[in-house]
Amino acid sequence: MDSNTIIAAVSIFTAGITIALGSIGPALGEGRALAQALSAIAQQPDEASTITRTLFVGLAMVESTAIYCFVISMILIFANPFWNYFLQANGG
Amino acid sequence: MNISPDEPLWQWEFIILNRTILFTWLIMALLVFVSWLITRRLSSSTKLSRGQNLLEVLVIGLRDQIQEVSQQNPGSYLPFIGTLFLFIAVSNIMAIVPGYHPPTGSLSTTAALATCVFVAVPIYGIAHQGFLGYMKQYIRPSIFMLPFNIIGELSRTLALAVRLYGNMMSGAVIGAILLGFVPLFVPILMQAFGLLTGIIQAYIFSVLAMVYIASATHSNHENNVKENVPDDHTEPVNTKSN
């Protein structure tokens, strides 16, 4: 295999692993946060607006780790710097 | 396939016009024009035009949200936070227009917006508690926390930018990929979902900006509470009690 093929294979494989692992953690965390917020709303319906807003902000914080993983996997597939470098170096 | 809308559309010597700039200008023009059109003849009677009703709902809603998050008079924050929210919301909603590319899907726009927040936080903080009072916040528990506070300030700005960028870009990229595989109904569902996430992201961006500003202006009254909270991101929200 020449270097281009190796880079392509490794990039695609790593992108898949990145998005897979990177979505497990935030999914578990968001599920937990949501469950807690639901039980809090069930106990104190008057505070629903505050709890909902805090939940949204917290979910956004948790979700940003998943977004980082997504951005990195997109970079690996569509804008891989090594890929571009070797394509230029090989004159392709 | 290109994940960035920043490639040049039109170039004259060193002036480059790309899609991000073009659509940002369009949104600015749209917002200004619609506001001018509506505020030209405001009425204070009980009979309101539709546009005035819409703007009043928006402004009152924004004021209430800012009031609840910051526990302060929303007057001085409304222009900044309201502009952020309106710009992001409109640029995300416009994604239903064919051929349009949301400027928030480009890292340069979101980085610029996050930089605005990064600059606004010390300005509001200094305006509220003076230069020394604001600077003391960085050495709050002890002087050794100074580097961590600075890193925290920088990393949350980065997080703001990448969060909005990633969300909008993912909508566009996944939409484009699905259009290749299942072009019948699935892209429409993804569009509708993208509208929802667009609004939520605009809301989250402005609420987070408000939380950061509130944490810079609050700390005088709530020193004792602040010491216990490890992360100042969540401080004003957590300590809210009524």
Question: What does the secondary structure layout of this molecule look like, with pairings?
Answer:
The complex is a heterodimer of chains A (92) and B (242).
Chain A: H1 3-43, H2 48-78, H3 81-89
Chain B: E1 8-12, E2 15-18, H1 19-39, H2 50-70, H3 78-93, H4 107-136, H5 146-181, H6 186-218, H7 223-228, H8 235-238
Helix pairs in contact in B: 1-3, 2-6, 3-6, 4-5, 4-6, 5-6
Structural features, described:
With about 90 residues, chain A is mainly α. Chain A has one domain: F1FO ATP Synthase (Up-down Bundle). Chain A has helices at about 5-45, 50-80, 80-90. In chain A, helix 1 packs antiparallel against helix 2 (about 50-80) and helix 1 (about 5-45) packs antiparallel against helix 3 (about 80-90). Chain A is rod-shaped. In chain A, about 15% of the residues are buried. Chain B is mainly α and about 240 residues long. Chain B has one domain. Chain B contains eight helices and two strands. Chain B has a two-stranded antiparallel sheet. In chain B, a hairpin with a 2-residue loop joins strand 1 and strand 2. The longest helix of chain B has about 35 residues, at about 145-180. The termini of chain B are far apart. The interface between A and B is medium-sized, with 19 and 28 residues.
Mean pLDDT level of chain A? 87
Secondary-structure element series of chain B: EEHHHHHHHH
Specify the CATH architecture of chain A.
Up-down Bundle
* Proportion of beta-strand residues of chain A: under 5%
Indicate how many domains the architecture of chain A comprises: 1
Keywords (chain B): ATP synthesis, Cell membrane, CF(0), Hydrogen ion transport, Ion transport, Membrane, Transmembrane, Transmembrane helix, Transport
Membrane topology (chain B): Multi-pass membrane protein
GO molecular function, one term (chain B): proton-transporting ATP synthase activity, rotational mechanism
InterPro entries (chain B): Alt_ATP_synth_F0_Asu, ATP_syn_F0_a_bact/chloroplast, ATP_synth_F0_asu, ATP_synth_F0_asu_AS, F0_ATP_A_sf
